[in-house]
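stage 2 :: seqdesign
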């Protein structure tokens, strides 16, 4: 196989990466798409990379939920779960929702609570404390809930909780989850999970909120058959979209439609909790996938990380604007606290990981007293820096609680489950891109060595953190609002569907200024009259910021992603600058 030449001859950029452009085959496919569809070449490049043929382009750019929504009954136990849910409503039974403490759990719980409210049925919300109880159902909590309720619905958890569910003898239990299943199912009336071992895997990309949504679709269908009606489920798609992006579910198939449609629903500002949260975060534009992952998601998560675990689900399910405002302000405060804790853990973890080497199959760090609420975020940062799967473990009283994040093509969840089955972990599980574990302090080194070995077999050690993949080259004058809107139409972008990244060749830095602690703002041009603004976040954490700030008139190739910047009602294009190289 021939070695592809470096794009713009950039063998080593300012951040040490080799730039790699589209292959000759991709270029040809993009050219054919451009001729057949009359789409701009940059949009055709994105579609070609996703493997979209000319006759599929229109359907891809305008994904319709009705065309992509799977039949809920294709999932095992779904009809049984929906029937039991309707029975509980009709019999006026006491219902409890046991939810995980993250965004996926909170949005899953909120959907059920709002759906039940339509029928005048209250539900008890139970979210375990991350530190005191840990992830998933536990026997004492389930026994207590079962004693006071007829039906318990576990969302975004429960698939591996055999002992905990066995303790709920006084009530019936339904599990609506997406985490990897084991060889046997827990004792429950229904376990609906696209990642059960006896499922086909066709819907393995769904997050838990999407599984809950499908359950409600099936419940509404059963109600219609009997001449009754349920609430309008299209209004729930803002919650499904938020969970899909925040839980890093791959943006393929129906997930694309969930996010696209959900963003439209969110833009109507009908849900008091999301309105209040967006206002607290000073969101002044229509929501995009970026806001779900980086603005709203972290704030919903903040309660489960460093505050009160049920705040996110309560915020998302309330119909009272005053309560929503109060909850959003509390979450905003917790999010600020979370950032401060995260910064300290991140610095220590990065130092440790660098000492071990960022080119190993697994990048990991462990430390005493590291807050368990931030280890997952820090693992994400390590993963982004190294381009490798990463684990970060906080140790307390001889027990380590860790969180891991993976990269595309490496299944971290199954490797961690294997580790647990081999006895190196107290417990562990998750899915391909994210996982959690509990491990004895004296077993951490052995467990991480074994995990590194398992991930190396999947090819994690051969991943190239040095490669920066580009979709092509643009002139500053071509980067206009219309083009960026068309590129957005080829989204949403995220896990399994990385956003387009373009290079701007041989540009002069016309303005450069440090912003905040470590960001850089620049304006650049190619000498033909057009100028483009750019922002490089955390540029001064590495060599990018200093080199561009003190450019000394030198010209650079610049690479990044295009955004629309809205300021005082006016729209302009801005480059989110990720890398640069001296133009030679």
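stage 2 :: out
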């Amino acid at each position: 196989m021939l070695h592809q030449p470096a794009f713009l001859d950039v063998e080593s950029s300012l951040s040490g990466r080799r730039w790699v452009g589209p292959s000759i085959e991709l270029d040809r496919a993009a050219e054919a798409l451009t001729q057949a569809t009359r789409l701009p070449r940059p949009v055709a490049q994105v579609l070609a990379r996703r493997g979209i043929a000319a006759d599929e382009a229109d359907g891809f750019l305008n994904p319709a939920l009705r065309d992509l929504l799977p039949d809920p009954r294709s999932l095992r136990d779904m009809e049984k779960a929906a029937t039991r849910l309707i029975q509980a409503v009709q019999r006026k039974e006491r219902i409890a929702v046991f939810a995980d403490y993250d965004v996926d759990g909170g949005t899953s719980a909120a959907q059920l609570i709002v759906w039940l409210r339509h029928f005048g049925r209250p539900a008890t919300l139970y979210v375990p404390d991350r530190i005191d109880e840990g992830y998933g159902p536990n026997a004492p909590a389930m026994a207590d809930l079962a004693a006071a309720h007829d039906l318990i619905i576990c969302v975004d958890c429960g698939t591996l909780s055999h002992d905990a569910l066995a303790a709920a003898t006084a009530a019936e239990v339904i599990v609506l989850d997406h985490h990897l299943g084991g060889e046997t199912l827990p004792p429950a009336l229904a376990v609906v999970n696209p990642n059960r071992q006896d499922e086909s895997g066709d819907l393995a990309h769904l997050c838990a909120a999407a599984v809950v949504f499908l359950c409600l679709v099936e419940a509404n269908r059963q109600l219609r058959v009997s001449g009754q009606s349920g609430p309008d489920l299209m209004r729930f798609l803002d919650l499904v979209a938020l969970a899909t992006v925040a839980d890093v579910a791959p943006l393929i198939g129906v997930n694309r439609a969930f996010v696209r449609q959900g963003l439209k629903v969110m833009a109507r500002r009908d849900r008091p909790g999301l309105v209040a949260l967006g206002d607290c975060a000073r969101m002044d534009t229509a929501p995009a996938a970026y806001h779900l992952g980086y603005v709203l998601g972290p704030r919903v998560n903040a309660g489960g990380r460093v505050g009160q675990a049920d705040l996110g689900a309560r915020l998302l399910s309330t119909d009272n604007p005053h309560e929503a405002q109060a909850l959003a302000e509390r979450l905003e405060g917790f999010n600020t606290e979370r950032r401060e804790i995260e910064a300290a853990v991140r610095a220590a973890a990065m130092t440790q990981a660098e000492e071990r080497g960022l080119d190993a199959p697994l990048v990991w760090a462990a430390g005493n007293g590291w807050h368990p609420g931030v280890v997952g975020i820090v693992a994400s940062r390590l993963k982004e820096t190294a381009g490798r799967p990463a684990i970060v473990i906080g140790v307390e009283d001889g027990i380590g609680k860790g969180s891991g994040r993976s990269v595309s093509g490496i299944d971290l969840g199954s490797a961690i489950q294997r580790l647990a089955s081999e006895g190196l972990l107290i417990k562990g599980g998750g899915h391909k891109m994210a996982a959690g574990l509990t491990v004895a302090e004296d077993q951490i080194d052995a467990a991480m060595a074994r995990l590194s070995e398992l991930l190396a077999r999947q090819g994690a050690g051969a991943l190239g953190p040095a490669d920066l993949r580009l979709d092509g080259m643009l002139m500053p004058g071509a980067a206009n609002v219309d083009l960026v809107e068309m590129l957005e139409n080829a989204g949403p972008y995220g896990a399994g569907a990385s956003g387009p990244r373009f290079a701007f060749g041989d540009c002069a830095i016309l303005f450069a200024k440090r912003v905040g602690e470590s960001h850089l703002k620049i304006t650049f041009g190619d000498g033909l009259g057009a100028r483009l603004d750019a922002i490089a976040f955390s540029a001064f954490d590495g060599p990018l910021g200093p080199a561009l700030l003190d450019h000394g008139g030198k010209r650079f190739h610049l690479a990044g992603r295009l955004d629309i910047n809205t300021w005082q009602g006016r729209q302009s294009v801005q480059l989110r600058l990720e890398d640069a190289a001296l133009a030679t």
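stage 3 :: structure notes
- The longest helix spans residues 321-356.
- The domain at 357-462 is CATH 3.10.310.30 (Diaminopimelate Epimerase; Chain A, domain 1).
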